[in-house]
């Protein structure tokens, strides 16, 4: 029973259907499962509920699915980089549920860890708390938030092995480790496929149990939203 | 004669303490990193999963896998650690970050803060702002005193809140206020920008405030 | 003529499936690892923070930093990953473990399970037992049919529960029962140990059960 | 402002007082902060509430504090290896609160992550749920459990640096990473002190922000509760 698939479309075979809920790792365009998102576009499924911190930008990342009209609802913390998003939202084609970023990360972690609800200070006294239970613990007010899971979760990792063990790189880790835990089926795309035993047991970020399918996507194109640099002659000044 | 953006950042940098873990917002707050006093060790956190944020990379050395919460390319430092967003916000929610410095659209006399949305305009989402103001030990707001001639320091916020009674200090181009987060609402002016008069700042502030200039100077 | 401990472990091993992630309790359940069918890939989890538990170490190669949830020295495998106890139980609570095989003191007809304490004796604590029975997808109990001549399969547990309606299957030295976790309470005998009669197992079981032997054989 | 202390007792200086709550990492005798526990014994503080999965064994680990009569209450999941524990408990000198192991780990994580309460299936219908709120989510019952924090948290790590970054080894990780997050002050003992930059940024288990004080304890004596081995001639049979 191998977890290794030879292409992104094959890795999604028989998983996708209309009106399902999917979840994707990534923050902005960093650490997003681009190849798997592209493969979802090819399946043509529609009516998707997508749980992801952002919705890509026009033509990149989840923006691709937005463009193709495949998304019915987004659960996100920030979608400001996407013009098409605004259009579809204002025209009523697209539903949005905003969750504060930390609450969203925690809701996904909770979903993966079998916790249906938890309390947080974040959002108390704001529209985020409207319609939710607010309760006092030790004199402070907290709002109850629900765990999140998905039918299919998609993650992007730096290295992986046939067991499904994953290691992420730098801030491309972001939402990926929690998203990996919260899918009924989790599919991972990895930049490097390692031999079993090559990944150091103490350094694995996502244990293989969470990953059902894995696909090797070498040398992916990576986009940067905000290139900021310093000039070499300023070295030492910062 | 108000403070420049650089001067506001410089004033905010005076809130740093040796050994502090700090989360800096986008804009003027980012510039605070340029004014960390020599010999003071301050560690910058980025909620997308990084502790020990370094300066922007040299041209040509940008790494798409290495960005801050503003999605800007940055660098790592020798002491840097990476972690998940869930862990990043665990630090914030759990009260492990000493200080956050961030911008705002409005701050009320009682410390209510509104900086994420303007009704009627396209809603972009709150990102991590609500988590930061709710979780970080001390919240310092750095913002222009007015927006298009309208005061931003108000009796009550008119925009949807980011957090209730969360601001500890407000630094504007005209001066510095402290805010009481507990008990009775209380805004206190503790410094004026160079050349700004009490009359001017009073005229441009729509919130009642106490004059604490003498105490601050003492 | 009942089954030996080895035979019970062997019978329990028939519940394994290729690709399963499995948590084994202490005692007979641990022995199940010896009967994983050839060619079948089964990954053992230990809730103290390890996926891919290997066999006991060779003498002299024990590592104090490498133990299972029974605090026994073990070894790692090439595919092993280590993680925190919080993550280990996240796997369990989140339903990521396919099967747990564990011992018990009592099981009731409705799947209630009691295996952590005897009132009046010193209470040792439940350890991870409550988490396992509540969180793992499928719970197989392996236990002696009787304790000191008293039946352990009961209409209702008399000992404090570890979990409510959590057992899916009970394997004893006398036979095998399936248990309905949802709907009406229903215990069904599906196999008898070699040489054990229906009369004998009926006499030694204090819970009503259906006879599913024919269906199981069919 | 250095976090590095030159001895376990110095690392606890001015932190300990009677009737405080402490927390310790470790599972059984694996990965326990032995040197720091020994230093607590020397302070002579009493009336401690101790949050730890186990309570050591007679004369080792937290058993040392039990022996010295310094513990008033334990919050644990299992204390079966300790005869003295039974004596003190039965004589009424020692109070015990049992938390299922996974619930205990999650309560500590929650405490460190600013979550005052969460819901879990574990313990529903058992004495663990008595006196606690039980609520249905999506047709299943869950019990509400509270987060835990401590005045001082003690952890044992394999490697650490002056920044407080920690890396644990194998199953000695166990409760340590969550305990590290849940102390008002967290003190770490490490077997190896690394130079800043020596620990790979992607492989740090506990970021330095959680660690206030760190002490180098080289070559600690490590105890094994259950030595189990296989004979060499049986190689391949398992």
Can you characterise this structure?
The complex is a heterotetramer, with two copies of chain A (about 240 residues) and two copies of chain B (about 220 residues). Chain A is an alpha/beta fold. Chain A has six helices and twelve strands. Chain A has a single domain (about 5-215), classed as Glutaconate Coenzyme A-transferase. Chain A has helices spanning about 10, 35-45, 65, 85-90, 100-110, 175-180, and strands at about 5, 20-25, 50, 70-75, 95-100, 115-120, 135, 140-145, 150-160, 165, 185-195, 215. The N and C termini of chain A lie far apart (about 55 Å). Chain A is globular and about 50 Å long. In chain A, strands 1, 2, 3, 4, 5, 9, 10, 11 and 12 form a nine-stranded mixed beta sheet that branches. In chain A, strand 2 (about 20-25), helix 2 and strand 3 (about 50) form a beta-alpha-beta unit. With about 220 residues, chain B is an alpha/beta fold. Chain B has a single domain (about 5-215), classed as Glutaconate Coenzyme A-transferase (3-Layer(aba) Sandwich). Chain B is built from six helices and 15 strands. Chain B has a ten-stranded mixed beta sheet with strand order 4-3-2-1-5-8-12-13-14-15. In chain B, helix 3 runs parallel beside helix 4. Chain B is globular and about 50 Å long.
Relevant terms:
heterotetramer, A: about 240 residues, alpha/beta, Glutaconate Coenzyme A-transferase, nine-stranded mixed beta sheet, three-stranded antiparallel beta sheet, 6 helices, about 20% helix, about 25% strand, globular, B: about 220 residues, ten-stranded mixed beta sheet
């Amino acid at each position: 029973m191998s977890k290794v698939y030879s292409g992104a479309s094959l890795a999604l075979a028989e998983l996708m259907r209309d009106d399902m809920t999917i979840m994707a790792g990534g923050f902005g365009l960093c650490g997003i499962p681009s190849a798997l998102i592209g493969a979802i576009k090819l399946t043509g499924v529609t009516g998707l509920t997508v749980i992801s911190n952002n919705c890509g930008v026009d033509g990149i990342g989840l923006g691709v699915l937005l463009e193709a009209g495949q998304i019915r609802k987004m659960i996100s913390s920030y979608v400001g980089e996407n013009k098409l998003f605004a259009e579809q939202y204002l025209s009523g084609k697209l539903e949005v549920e905003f969750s504060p970023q930390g609450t969203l990360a925690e809701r996904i972690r909770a979903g993966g860890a079998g916790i249906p609800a938890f309390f947080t200070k974040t959002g108390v006294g704001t529209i985020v708390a409207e319609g939710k239970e607010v309760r006092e613990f030790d004199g402070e007010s907290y709002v109850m938030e629900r765990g999140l899971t998905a039918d299919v979760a998609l993650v992007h990792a730096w290295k992986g092995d046939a067991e499904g063990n994953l290691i992420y790189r730098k801030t491309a880790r972001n939402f990926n480790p929690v998203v990996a835990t919260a899918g009924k089926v989790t599919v991972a795309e990895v930049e490097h496929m390692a031999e079993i035993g090559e990944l150091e047991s103490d350094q694995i970020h996502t244990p293989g149990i969470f990953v059902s399918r894995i696909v090797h996507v070498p040398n992916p194109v990576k986009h940067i939203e905000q290139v900021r640099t310093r000039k070499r002659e300023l070295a030492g000044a910062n | 004669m108000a403070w420049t953006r650089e001067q506001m950042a410089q004033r905010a940098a005076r809130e740093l303490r040796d050994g502090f873990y700090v989360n800096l917002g986008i804009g003027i707050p980012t510039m605070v990193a340029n004014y960390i006093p020599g010999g003071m060790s301050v560690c910058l956190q980025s909620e997308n999963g990084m502790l020990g944020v370094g300066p922007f990379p040299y041209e040509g050395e940008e790494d798409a896998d290495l960005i801050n919460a503003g999605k800007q390319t940055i660098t790592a430092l020798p002491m840097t650690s990476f972690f998940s967003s869930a862990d990043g916000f665990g630090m914030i929610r759990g009260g492990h970050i000493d200080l956050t410095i961030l911008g705002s659209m409005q701050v009320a006399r009682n410390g209510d803060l509104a900086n994420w949305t303007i009704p009627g305009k396209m809603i972009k989402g709150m990102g991590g702002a609500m988590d930061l103001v709710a979780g970080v030990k001390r919240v310092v707001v750095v913002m222009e005193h007015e927006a298009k001639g309208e005061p931003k320091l108000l009796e009550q916020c008119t925009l949807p809140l980011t957090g209730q009674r969360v601001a500890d200090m407000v630094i504007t181009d005209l001066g510095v206020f402290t805010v009481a987060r507990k008990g009775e609402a209380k805004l206190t002016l503790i410094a004026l920008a160079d050349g700004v008069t009490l009359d001017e700042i009073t005229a441009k502030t729509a919130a009642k405030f106490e004059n604490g200039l003498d105490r601050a100077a003492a």
